[in-house]
Queue: 2 jobs
Job 1
Amino acid sequence: MSSEMPDGGPLKRRGLILILSSPSGAGKTSISRSLLGEENKSDNSIHLSVSVTTRKRRPSEVDGVHYNFVSTRQFESMRDHDDLLEWAEVHGNYYGTPREPVEAALQAGKDVLFDIDWQGTRQVLEKMRADTVAVFVLPPTAAEQRARLERRAEDDSDVIARRLSNARDEITHWTEYDYVLVNTDLDESVAKARAILNAERCRRERLVDLPDFIAALDRDLAAETG
Ligand SMILES: Nc1nc2c(ncn2[C@@H]2O[C@H](COP(=O)(O)OP(=O)(O)O)[C@@H](O)[C@H]2O)c(=O)[nH]1
Ligand SMILES: Nc1ncnc2c1ncn2[C@@H]1O[C@H](COP(=O)(O)OP(=O)(O)O)[C@@H](O)[C@H]1O
């Protein structure tokens, strides 16, 4: 369940799951793409969990990269074979996280980024609380949220209206998250998300070798001090 710290330090640690959730248009996809881009420039990498969804692909999306786009029948088959770590119906479509790649990554000490809603977050927290860090992203104002959805220009106006009205229910789940980011300035939000990730990587519970490391340090100190 561990590997060398990717930053080259001597401590081994378990991988973690970083969840980003938000009402549509708050900016979680932008934050996660930025985080993934930056991370992958270094060894200190985090990988996106690619969800399966029955939603229609947006023009900017690539099948297999941003989502695996599947039919309802394919989705239901995965769900019924317990191939999904969590799943939910959101804005009238199914979304789910394939289980196997996540389990493999964590076992290898790698971190995984989830862009999932509050229903999925709840399921992951129930199953894997110790490995999971949940971050909720909010828009600064409702008017800005609408403006972002309109500027994104990838959804029809009825889809945008549905997403805005669903936001009222979604934001009631803020207490179920470990951290909250109000995404006013994108660069600042990305910096905060990175800070959360870096701090969580240092949590003592994830450092599986720590007792051995401390014991070795103590032996060296004893030798140094005679
Ligand atoms: N539970 C769950 N939610 C997901 C998953 N993938 C995406 N979502 C959520 O589904 C919602 C809609 O996502 P999407 O259609 O990409 O629209 P967007 O939020 O406007 O970018 C968002 O809240 C996502 O976080 C998943 O695998 N599981
Ligand atoms: N801090 C920000 N300031 C201004 N525009 C933003 C900011 N964050 C994201 N956006 C823009 O808002 C739109 C919605 O962002 P997106 O990341 O797709 O949101 P979500 O994934 O939460 O639905 C996109 O066009 C994106 O470029």
Job 2
Amino acid sequence: MSNGVFNIPTPTNEPGNTYAPGTKERETLKAELKRQSETVVDIPVIINGENIKTDSVKQVVMPHDHQHVLANFSLAGEKELRDAVEAAMAAKESWANMPWQHRASIFLKAADLISGPYRDVINSATMLGQSKTAYQTEIDAAQELADFLRFGVDYANQIYQMQPDSMKNIWNRLEYRPLDGFVLAISPFNFTAIGGNLPSAPAIMGNVVVWKPASTSVLSNYYFMRILEEAGLPKGVINFVPSRGSQVSEVVLTDPRMSGFHFTGSTSTFQTIWKNVGENIMNYKSYPRLVGETGGKDFVFAHETAQADKVVAALVRGAFEYQGQKCSAASRAYIPASMWEEVKAGVLEETAKLKVGDVRDFRNFMGAVIDKPAFDSITSYIDYAADSEEAEIIAGGTYDDSVGYFVQPTVIVTTNPNFKTMTEEIFGPVLTIYVYENDQLEDTLTAVDTASMYALTGAIFAQDREAIMHLERRLSGAAGNFYINDKPTGAVINQQPFGGSRGSGTNDKAGSVFNMIRWTSPRIIKENFAPTTEIAYPFMDEE
Ligand SMILES: NC(=O)c1ccc[n+]([C@@H]2O[C@H](COP(=O)([O-])OP(=O)(O)OC[C@H]3O[C@@H](n4cnc5c(N)ncnc54)[C@H](O)[C@@H]3O)[C@@H](O)[C@H]2O)c1
Ligand SMILES: N[C@@H](CCC=O)C(=O)O
């Protein structure tokens, strides 16, 4: 029996550990890092709760020590991908019908497993497999992942409580059904939390999911899948299929029962997928919901009334934390000429202090970039700037992939507000600065707004309230997450719902009720307690 209107435990943001020297948390994390560094994990494809090994095996390596293998994982091929769709569809009815409080409990328990006994495990996997420092990993794999689950349950509950009015003798009920078929989730490498949220958000809303993680984050994503299983997720609800993106597009994306697509990754991948869906539109049984958060070219704009030291901190942390591999990373900046010498001195001083290396050494501020293609792409931008007459590299500019994919934090100054590195997403530790004349404020704001195809995050720095209001208004379309006197990174679930528009995505705001509402197909049910027998209208008796 399950009678009762149950209250969801009120979520709060998961507090973070500091990992300061001498703390217990540092000791246990270091022990787990050692254990995982000495282990090679075998990662299967997981379909309908079955562990499946395939003939196609790939490796997970440490980006900061690329000869060190952390795991071997099976790659799902066409057969496994088709099986995953069938498994999801077979699990659909019982999952959709599971009483809400039980569905919710599974994800709440998973959040507690992450923030409790598995914290070191998922943090270590993220540090080693994605080359994230302990500080950045804690924000991602422990705090944000647990927050996504706990707040996701709360958002679903808020949606379920949204009910229509009912008049005399009528009861109107809104039933929040899952989508008609299954949801395909494809996740990026850079946030373990995003990897976990993309399949979980639709599943919390009662959907079944085929989840393709990025090949470079398979290790942490696999541990998350195991945590869901331990929390009691029924077989087939989420099917874990590391695979080639192009094959998932061919086999799963085009399946007529694909009714939702939950994506985070690059703009070009999302556009390719959107095009595939468009070309296939006649074959689907419903109109697939497409939710995608994609690339960014995120800015920091300093007004002449800004405080230079605050701008420096925002630039250095915003651009170089996690090697600039955040979609929100500060990658272009606009500094007034009157402040430039002070900002330049600060940026050079602070950047020179940043240590780059193995993330197991907690003194390092940065690890390696994710893999060889990323290394080659990022360094090609640095080489381009080095060869250009419109640019000068004032810090960093060097790189070395002999042991790990290391790129030094690099600062470019350009005389062209539309220079290549001011307009294209680089996704690495490269910041480009344009110094504007103080009397060129309006033209420079136009450049901020129009230089790139993206509109994800942006930060302004100013002390003067009139200036703040002006910049906020002038840049209203330039960022979905807009920061005043703060860096453009580090959004927190339930505090700064995340997402951008233009080329940056559908702006469905990850970590909010807006995202969760995309995963339901509501049905209105009207019940009449006193059905009428009348047919004629009352005024028909007389002319
Ligand atoms: N806006 C956001 O919230 C947000 C958050 C994180 C990352 N990002 C963006 O993600 C990008 C970095 O992540 P990435 O390198 O993993 O992105 P990516 O687009 O290369 O890959 C993302 C996922 O898509 C898969 N994929 C690639 N091609 C595919 C295809 N043709 N069909 C189906 N799947 C395909 C990949 O295997 C991976 O799982 C950056 O552009 C960054 O800005 C955006
Ligand atoms: N939500 C994260 C960015 C996610 C993209 O990589 C932030 O706000 O920094």
